[in-house]
Design goal:
Helix content: 25-40%
Order of helices and strands: HEEEHEH
Largest sheet: 4 strands, mixed
CATH class: Alpha Beta
Shape: globular
Structural class: alpha+beta
Radius of gyration: 16 Å
CATH topology: Nucleotidyltransferase, domain 5
Strand content: 25-35%
């Protein structure tokens, strides 16, 4: 039982220190921002919506890497551009903030 708890704690610790990603997917009336949020793997995300000021605070608190859709229409399919942006950022490529 203790070993299982240790494994869970180690996994959670890894998540806490993982990169976090945000990709804006739309704007709604009333100043709401629609976006995807991911921890560790940008392919596994949740869709969220927040008012503009709350979105900015959310991004700052999570130190989120903002993914852009500048290469959205790549040949690899819908998700390929996200992975490419992440690889560039991690490797210190042209999109490094």
């Amino acid at each position: 039982m203790l070993r299982e708890r240790g494994d869970v704690v180690q996994q959670l610790s890894g998540l806490i220190h993982s990169r976090r990603y945000v990709r804006v997917t739309g704007n709604r009336p009333g100043g709401f921002i629609e976006f995807d949020f991911a921890i560790g793997d940008p392919e596994l995300f949740v869709e969220l919506i927040l008012p503009q000021n709350a979105f900015e605070e959310f991004c700052a608190r999570n130190r989120a890497v903002v993914l852009t859709s500048s290469s959205e229409h790549c040949a690899d399919g819908e998700m390929g551009w996200r992975l490419r942006d992440v690889v560039d950022r991690v490797a210190g490529g042209p999109h490094e903030a």
